[in-house]
Amino acid sequence: MKTYRKTIVFLILAFCYVGIQARTSPTYAVVGCRLVIGNGTVIEKGTILIRDGLIQSVGPAADLKIPPDARVIQGEGKIAYPGLIDAHSQFFLERKPAGQGDESETDEAADLWKNAHVNAYDFIKPKKSTREDLHKIGVTTVVVVPGREIFAGQSVIVNLNGDIREEMVLKHSYGLHINFVTNRGEYPSSLMGTMALIRQSFYDARHYGLHAGLYKESPVGLKRPAYNPFCETLLPYMNKEKPVVFNCGNMEDINRAVRLVEELGLRGVLSGANEAWRVADVISRSGLPLFVSLKFNPPSSSRYVRLGEDLKKKAEKDIYPANAAELNKTGIPFALTSNGLVKGSDMLKSLQSAIKAGLPREEVLKAMTVRPAVFLGIDDVTGTLEAGKIANVVLTEGELFEEKSAVRHVFADGVHFEYEAPPKKKAEQSPAAVNITGKWRVQGAAPSGEKAVRIPGQGTQGRTQ
Amino acid sequence: MIKRLLFFCLLILSGLTFLSAETKKSGVIVIQGATVVTVTGDPIPGGTIVIEGDRIAAVGKDIPVPAGAVVLDATGLFAYPGMIDAGCFLGLQEIRMVRATVDSQETGRVNPQVSALEALRPDSMHIPISLSTGITAALVLPSGGLISGKCGLIKLTGWTTEEMTIKDPVAMVVQFPSMRGSRRPSDTPQPPSRNLQDLQEIFDQARYYGQAVSAAAADKALPLPDFNETLQFMQPVVSGELPVLFNVHSEKDILDCIDFVKKEKIKAVFMGVTLGWKAADKIAEAGIPVILGSMTDMPSSWDDGYDAVYRNPVLLHEAGVKIAFSSQSSSLAKDLPSMAGKAAAFGLDRSEALKAVTINSAEILGVAESMGSLEKGKLANIVLCDDDILELRTNIRHVFVEGVEADLSTVYTELLNKWKKRHKKPE
Amino acid sequence: MNRRFYIITVVFLLIGTALPTFAQDVLIKNGTVLTVTKGTIENGDVLIKKGIITRIGNNIEAPAGFKVIDATGLYVMPGIIDSHTHIALTGTNEGTDAITSEVKMRDVINSEDPGIFTALSGGVTMVHTMHGSANPIAGENVTLKLKWGKTAEDMLVSEAFRTLKFALGENPKRANSFGPTRGTPRYPQTRMGVIAIIRREFLRAKQYKEDWDRYNQAVKKNKRLIPPRKDLRLEPLVEMLEGKMFARVHAYQADETLEFIALAKEMGFKIACFEHVSEAFKITKELVEENIGISIFADGWAYKMEASQGIAYNAGYATKKGVLVSINSDSGERIRRLFNDAAKAMKYGGLNEEEALRLITINPAIQLGVDKIVGSLEVGKHGDIALFREHPMSIYTRCEKTIVEGEVYFDREKGGEK
């Protein structure tokens, strides 16, 4: 198992390496920045060396020698973070898998739910603007999840290292995605039918696997199993080799998913889950990985939207954005995802309101770096700024997730992207009286460009020029 | 299945032929010993009611029995005026999901030309059931569309529509256009809905049509307007002769409707008025009476409270609105007393609840001079029962409609009696 | 981190378990206690400890720490039980296939349905919430306690019978054409077909059971045998044949009801209860002989052809004849006035107050197999209680408080929930 995994990682790395080799991939030295390693360590004045798409070494600036071939990026006043990981997204899905609105293409409505074999990879169309939007909030790695069918298909993990699909792939098939949805007009037309179908499908896969296994052992005297592509696809999931990700639209969906995982003995993952705090005990007992969506709209089933207008408004504004903060209080580990959000900028807004609702910033960082890396099984290659890992690095002016901060440099697989700080819209207006002391950073609108300035002392108010 | 229906009808027919021959002969009936709940006055314990022909000749205590009168000893019973269902589909809907048996809703939106009573089936199996619950008169409604048609008032005995008709038409039924998606009053003023514009236009055109018709009548040289059925049948409405029964529910719609009524200077009655409590003062101020819809409606919004529909009657009453109850049903039209009782459970005074199925209904429908209370000179619509008439467990013993005791057998009792034979112990 | 997690968990567990237990200790004082099975106690008290009734009588003192609910002037009755409804579910029918025995209402409990609150406002504390009637064989129903605000898991009543929904007549044959109608009409389209398809499925289930039995025997000798395919559609039917689950059968007409009784005997499964049975008054003889209860409307009738003889005397008459009758709502609205519906059987059928009360308390409890824990006010049963102003059989009554296992889930004084 372990070696298998290592091989995969090796292959992936090799693949990336080859991909990146195709372009010029210089060696970089990011010098003099604050290094947030992601494992709890922070180096105040540090240097990262990036070579061949990997982090070659990390350490205090004083200790590291800058290689002569390195292109030096001055990190003075900037902060380096591990690239963020969005563990459940629908970004880059240009073409939709069959059966999602393309009625002209197929009439076999009854089989629409059998999309298990579909891989999001086949439907990805890289898009520069989307990639840049994600980079600008610090995201370097996303899991692209296909479709919204019951058996929606398999997801792909991509690194945002450019706009060539093949080169982006970090892991081709991460997990099987299941949605608690129905098949209008055909079986299953109800949620209860969907539940029954999910169960029956996995039992069928198990039966198929049993038969195929016996036949493989020795075919003599055994009826030949008929090839069944659906069961074939489900087999590794039924056998716990790969995770099954349940998209949970409300708290009862979480209960449903946990029950299915237990009944069927799956390697389950809970995603969506924007009502997770309401069933924290169930989640905690299940011990399943949890991908919490940053989409805060209360589900239509929620009592918070059905018991009057006042409560509904409160739910949208205060209650649901506090999901992650509440979960954090219970100690349940979770990752944060864009699941359900359309734009990268929505993700940042959501992150900011989650922080406002009481989620500590360091928890947000964990929930978008090490945690998803562990949950996705890619923590050996990414998630922290440690030597030997993929060079997914984000260099910011100001702390991540802050309204006034800006991502200025992104390395994905060591490929360097540089971004201008966003223009200050209200530069002429008198600044709001915000207390910005200590480690806060503020951009000055100097003619030469934007600069991060450390504000010394305490109680300084207003803009520094 | 048709056979089965016919069978019911036969059963009912055979039941109705057993009308008391005795009471018919003498012409004078005296009900003695009952607690007489007159509705308009105080209850009279051990009271007497004298019926002469179809009218009440006397009500009170210690009234001498006229010679030759048939005396009914009602000691221990209560006498009430027959209840009035101020809105139902009796005789128009037999079996709701079997289209062939439903005649309450005409197709199209504008149907002032249709009259509910012209489709009435006197032999409906539901009518005797209401009658046997102490309901002696009912307003039969057309439904649907924008202008549904004319409603009429019937008594619940009689062989033909003609025999049953008390007043026809009573009103034009209009489903007052609702502002779509405006359950919550919006801050920004919205333009009137398309339907409201249409309604306005029909009224405007009808007035002009009427003007043209009367001008042409006065002056033969003037041309008659092109015949227009809708405008023709709207004449009694725009002239103010025929009231309009507006089915209206939300606060905003109620306020709009009050404006419409004032502007058009028409006689109006509101029906439904689920959210009437939100505009109770305005309705009272406009002096428009209200026929409440079914008390089994659910509140339209959680914010209103779980008992909003139950509390609506008392809140309207306290604001000074005249209210009456309606069943809005045919197969469960018998539940009318429960509507009033439920309102009483949620704060409406019991005597007011009783008024809202008797005298108030009569007043709203314009027949209070002849029914709605036990008073001298009114029609002898009398119910004798063993307990409070609004109570669920109360048994109705006798019902007089216009002085004639009614047969209280129903399809319920006929079917039960038929099948009881099967379960008799074999000899 | 770990330690913090541990502490938080402990604190949570303490809050989670200690508080409700505390709330479940309650004394209901000085009401007219309608026990239903053991008569009426004037000025009576009901003591509930940890959700269970421990004493009923007069002048009971509240032990320390018990909450006291003053019921002076109120009627104290067992929580109402609705033997047939569809609230608290996400979806009612899997109406596509004629046979959908694989679906379970347990999977689609919607604990957030405001219908739960509506039911509580009418004194209802327990419901048997069911699959719809679109299919001859539908799905497995579920019995819930109405603990508004808690999750589905908290509401499940594990003591209740396991029941499978069947439907006969107009609905499964699609006479009133609801559900998907495009394409070829779904088999069956007649009452003949409805009975035939149910028989077919039971024959299939028998064979399925036989296949498994044979496999289980043979595999002992030959490990290389392939087991039969696990069929979730047939397994519930096997469980019915094994007596682990009972039929709840939507049937309006007398004829189809009798046909189903015959089919159940032919196939060898048990019927827990018939639903609606508008024409039960015609076949009380058989219902008594077979000891099958009915769960019916008080007077809802004539909305469709097969309900056109659903006379209001049905409940009262059948009760007098010895049939176990419950009055159900089948509706998210009617559920809040089941006490009114029960009272109708006093007028139509001549039941007394206690007999009428039984229709919505102990009788449905017996039908659901939970009469040992609920359905009447007796020591040892759950503290599921409704407090009414006026006698619950009066139209002037109204529910003031609804209590489940000693906890108040509806309180009119507090404007319901808010």
> Total domains of chain C, how many?
1
CATH superfamily of chain C: Metal-dependent hydrolases
pLDDT < 50 runs, ≥5 residues of chain C: 5-21
Q: What is the third-level CATH name, the topology of chain C?
A: TIM Barrel
Q: Which fold name corresponds to the CATH topology of the largest domain in chain A?
A: TIM Barrel
Strand portion of chain A: 15-25%
Proper CATH architecture of the largest domain in chain A: Alpha-Beta Barrel
Structural class label of chain C: alpha/beta
Structure description:
- The complex is a heterotrimer of chains A (465), B (427) and C (418).
- Chain A has 465 residues and is α/β, with parallel strands linked by helices.
- Chain A contains 13 helices and 20 strands.
- In chain A, strand 12, helix 6 and strand 13 form a beta-alpha-beta unit.
- Chain B folds into two domains: 19-81 and 372-408, Urease, subunit C, domain 1, CATH 2.30.40; 83-371, Metal-dependent hydrolases (TIM Barrel), CATH 3.20.20.
- Chain B is built from 14 helices and 16 strands.
- In chain B, strands 1, 2, 3, 4, 5, 14, 15 and 16 form an eight-stranded mixed β-sheet that branches. In chain B, strands 6-7-8-9-10-11-12-13 form an eight-stranded mixed β-sheet.
- In chain B, helix 10 crosses helix 11.
- The radius of gyration of chain C is 23 Å and the shape is globular.
- Chains in contact: A-B, A-C, B-C.
- Chains A and C meet through helix 4, helix 6 and helix 7 of A and helix 1 of C.
